[in-house]
Design goal:
This protein has about 120 residues and is mainly β. It has 2 helices and 7 strands. The strands form 2 sheets. A 4-stranded antiparallel β-sheet has the order 1-2-7-6, covered by helices on one side. The relative contact order is 0.28.
Length: about 120
């Protein structure tokens, strides 16, 4: 898995940016992503203090986006068996709610940055 450099989700579409020197195979990425979604892993939440987050810097997986701080606590989002990281955004209860996705394209956005554009056809 490559480090994430950014991302955004909208109504029916999204993008994820990765620190990668070469573009991955679009069909392979789409199949692997949809296989994860079909796994329907539950999503759960818990809170830790800013100090606990500082003691576990490996939880922050984005290179340029930091989790929201300042309230004394940070929300962790766990996708069971897949990922655990801080995030203040909106989330599904389980990843099966996402539904099948299409990889619209993978773009080169710099020497080490690849943007994966997603479409959510069931949105």
């Amino acid at each position: 898995m490559a480090p994430v450099t950014g991302g955004a989700v909208g109504d029916g579409y999204g993008r994820l940016d990765f620190d990668l020197p070469e573009s991955p195979d679009q069909a392979e990425v789409q199949e692997k992503l949809n296989a994860l979604i079909r796994g329907d892993a539950p999503v759960s939440f818990r809170w830790i203090t800013d100090a606990e987050l500082d003691a576990q810097p490996e939880l922050v997986k984005t290179l340029s986006v930091q989790p929201p701080r300042g309230a004394g606590k940070v929300r962790l989002v766990q996708v069971e068996g897949i990922d655990l990281q801080p995030c203040g955004g909106t989330h599904v209860r389980n990843i099966g709610e996402i539904g099948e996705v299409l990889i619209a394209k993978i773009e080169k956005k710099g020497k080490q940055n690849r943007r994966v554009r997603l479409e959510f056809p069931t949105a």
